[in-house]
């Protein structure tokens, strides 16, 4: 058994006076895909934001590679990729410029690699078009192109399948599966029917917490 | 195959350059927004002679103050945009999650804000200075005080912009929070020009303005970064 990348111990979160979860403990191991499940408002997004380090409204312990996360914040941030509801795409910039800006602080790549990634997500021919002229699904694909060039061991993906067509969904399924086979860890939420072999489920229900393999 | 945790990140300076370059690029794709603070600045300065008195003696006396107040208000007006668009489209989340220290990235954003709003105001000042009958020496001193003062306005303003990010109607609160902090800069900015007009030495005034700038440069980015994290955490 390899060492967990991220370990959550007794996580507890309250939002607007309502308890979303308590005593939530789990480990994210390398080479696994975990799906966070729950009804609307059950705290899936909140959990992912807590794991990514965006939200401070929680109690409990988070260990990154065995160390408390606050102590290794910089290395933690470098090793985790978070993709949220809001895709982080500037509508005034083209897909290529967006991708370049997103990678600049993490893993600067030449335009060739970036153009290849954009082509693989089906954006060939749109590289230089400002993103506001693209459809919602295409904008989403710009954010997803980032996954193709990402080297972070842990991915936290919130509703990545939104506004993506059927062929896109299966492409992402394959990508996540390959990622796990390479040894990366993926945590995602979705309301779509998604088939990824060996997916672990992390179920958030008010008051109680289930975690089955 | 195992994926090993990564150690090396991009250097902070390179990351700052990238943030700065992106902000400039976005701003130049939306040029009309760049003109707004300048137009406001020009309008306020033009309205004073019309509304109060076109007499040369009045304008010479009040001119520097009018220009400083107009510059201050036009920076204040532009502040809400500093983080708002990034907040709405999610790029701010990605900025906060970058492995480099956040205060440096915020400093890069604030510098971009100054280059896009404060600096054009300084460049426009000689023209408007002539319009309110300031003499050459006063205009030079006024430009110098604005050159030192407007970055302070951007840096302090960034704290307020970051704090009010999560609120829907942030405008009034932002002004209430920030204007008291702008007052010392305004007093010493206009004081410098007044002293110069009387022929008094201005070295001490400029040194104080410079001290404000150093203080703001060293402290404000930390405060803005902390405020950004709080605002994002509550969103």
From TrEMBL, chain B:
Membrane protein topology class: Multi-pass membrane protein
Chain ranges passing through the membrane: 34-52, 64-83, 103-127, 139-165, 172-197, 203-228
Compartments where found: Cell inner membrane
Pfam families tied to this protein: CcmB
Keywords: Cell inner membrane, Cell membrane, Cytochrome c-type biogenesis, Membrane, Transmembrane, Transmembrane helix, Transport
Matching InterPro entries: Cyt_c_biogenesis_CcmB (IPR003544), Cyt_c_CcmB_bac (IPR026031)
Any one GO CC term of the record: plasma membrane
Coiled coil: none
Main location (coarse class): membrane
Any one of the GO BP annotations: cytochrome c biosynthetic process
Single GO MF descriptor: heme transmembrane transporter activity
Family: Belongs to the CcmB/CycW/HelB family.
Functional summary from the UniProt entry: Required for the export of heme to the periplasm for the biogenesis of c-type cytochromes.
Name of the protein in its database record: Heme exporter protein B
């Amino acid at each position: 058994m390899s060492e967990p990348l991220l370990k959550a111990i007794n996580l507890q979160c309250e939002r607007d006076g309502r308890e979303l979860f308590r005593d939530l403990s789990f480990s994210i191991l390398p080479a696994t895909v975990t799906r966070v499940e729950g009804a609307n408002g059950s705290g899936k997004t909140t959990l992912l934001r807590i794991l990514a380090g965006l939200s401070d409204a929680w109690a409990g312990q988070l260990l990154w590679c065995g160390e408390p996360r606050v102590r290794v914040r910089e290395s933690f941030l470098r090793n985790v990729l978070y993709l949220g509801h809001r895709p982080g795409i500037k509508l005034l910039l083209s897909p290529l410029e967006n991708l370049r800006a997103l990678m600049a602080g993490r893993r600067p790549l030449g335009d060739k690699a970036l153009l290849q990634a954009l082509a693989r997500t089906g954006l060939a021919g749109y590289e230089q078009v400002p993103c506001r002229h693209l459809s919602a699904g295409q904008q989403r694909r710009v954010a997803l192109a980032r996954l193709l060039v990402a080297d972070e061991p842990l991915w936290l993906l919130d509703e990545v399948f939104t506004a993506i067509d059927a062929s896109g969904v299966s492409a992402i399924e394959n990508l996540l599966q390959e990622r796990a086979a390479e040894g990366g860890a993926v945590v995602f939420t979705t309301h779509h029917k998604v088939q990824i072999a060996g997916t672990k489920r992390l179920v958030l229900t008010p008051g109680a917490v289930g975690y089955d393999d | 195959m195992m994926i090993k945790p990564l150690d090396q990140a991009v250097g902070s300076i390179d990351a700052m350059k990238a943030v700065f370059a992106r902000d400039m690029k976005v701003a130049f794709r939306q040029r009309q927004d760049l003109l707004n603070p300048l137009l406001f600045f020009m309008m306020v300065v033009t309205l004073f002679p019309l509304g109060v008195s076109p007499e040369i003696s009045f304008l010479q006396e009040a001119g520097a103050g009018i220009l400083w107040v107009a510059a201050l208000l036009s920076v204040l007006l532009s502040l809400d945009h500093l983080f708002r668009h990034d907040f709405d489209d999610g790029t701010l989340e990605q900025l906060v999650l970058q492995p480099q220290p956040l205060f440096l990235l915020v400093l890069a954003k604030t510098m971009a804000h100054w280059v896009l709003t404060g600096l054009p105001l300084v460049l426009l000042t000689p023209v408007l200075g002539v319009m309110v009958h300031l003499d050459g020496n006063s205009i030079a001193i006024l430009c110098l005080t604005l050159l030192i003062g407007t970055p302070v306005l951007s840096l302090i303003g960034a704290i307020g912009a970051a704090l009010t990010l999560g609120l829907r109607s942030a405008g009034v609160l932002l002004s209430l929070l920030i204007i008291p902090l702008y007052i010392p800069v305004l007093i010493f900015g206009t004081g410098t020009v007044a002293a110069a007009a009387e022929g008094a030495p201005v070295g001490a005034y400029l040194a104080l303005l410079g001290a404000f700038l150093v203080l703001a440069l060293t402290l404000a980015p930390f405060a803005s970064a902390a405020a950004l994290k709080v605002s994002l955490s509550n969103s």
